[in-house]
Write a structure and sequence with these properties.
TIM Barrel; eight-stranded parallel β-barrel; two-stranded antiparallel sheet; globular
Length: about 350
Amino acid sequence: MMRHGGFLAVLSAALFISGCITIVPAQTQPAQQQVQATPSPEPALKTVFGMKGVAIDLPQADFDGMKKAGIDILATEWGMEQDVDRTIAFLDKAHKAGLKVVMDGGFSARAWGFTDDDWDHLPAGKRPVWQKDRVQEWIKALKAHPAVYAWDICNEFGENLPCGAGIKNSGWPESMITVEQIKQSKADVLEADPTRPVHIRMYGWDVGKMPSHVSALLDGKIADIISLNLYSNYLDQGKLQWPAVIEDAGGYFVDAIKQKSPGVKVWVSLAAFQYTKIFQRPTTDNLTRDINNSAAIKNLDGITFFCWGPVSQWDDKCDWYLPVTGADLWRTIQLEIAKLKQAG
C-alpha cells in the first residue's frame, strides 16, 4: 500500500521538542465530466468552515452530510499520486454537494521529485526538487472544474515528505523546502492558473519568536490563505504537549501572520483525530473548547478540522473515520458550527 507522508511524518515531531512551546510540524504538531468553470468565489461568510483529510473514494452521502453540517471547503491528504479521472470523480461529488476543494498544487511528494519507494528507502542526500512540468500538467487538467477553490503549494516546508524529520537519510532540517523554492512553486502555479488563490499550511512557533524561515515565507504574501495547524491533542512521550494552544496563543499567531503579511487570510485547523501514540483522541469538551477559543480570535477567517478520513486509505495502521470512529466529535462539530452561524 502506498503510504501518505502526512501520517508518516508525525513520527518525527519529537525531534523538535525542546520545551513546552516548540516548533512542531502541522500534521504533527499541537501548536503548535469536466465542467467549464469560472473562478471560484470565496463563500460569503464571516467564517469559513473546512474539513481536512477527506479521502478520495467517499460516497456522495459523505459530501452531502458535510455540506448539511455547514462545512464549506474540503482539503485532501492526497494529490498528484492519484489519477486525474479519479480526482475529477471526487470533485464532481463535492460540486454536486455544493462544496469547494483546496487541491494539491505542490504539497505532495510527486510535486517535489520523490517516489513511493522513498518513504522506506530514501537515497542518502536526496532533496526536494520542484517538478514544474508535472505540477502544471496536473493543474491544467483540473482547473476547469468548478469545485476547485485553491491550490495548496506546500505543507510545512516538506515535513510531510520522504525527506522529513525522522526519515532515515533525510538529513532534516537541511532537507527542508527552501523559501526560494516555495516562491518558485507559487509563481509556477499561478502561471498555470492565475484565477485561484494559493494556499499553504504552516505550524505554530514559540510565542514572540517567529522563526526566520517562517518570517521569510510571510514576506511578500507568499500565499493568499494560510492554514495554521494548532492541534491541541499532540502527545510527547505520552503527555499532551500544549492542550491550551488555541487559548494561549491562537490569537497571537493569527495577528503575527496578518501583521507580517497584510491581506492574507488565516484559517485555524483543529484536532478531531486520533493516531497511535502521537495524537490523543480529543474529548467532546476538548473540541468544544478549541472551537469556541478559535471563534473568539479577532480577524480569524476560517476554522477547519483534521480529519475526516477514512485514514485507512492512506495508512492501513489507522482506522480513523470521523463519522464512525469519531461520531461524538462529528456531532460536536455540527452543533458548534450551527451555534456559530446562528450567532452571526
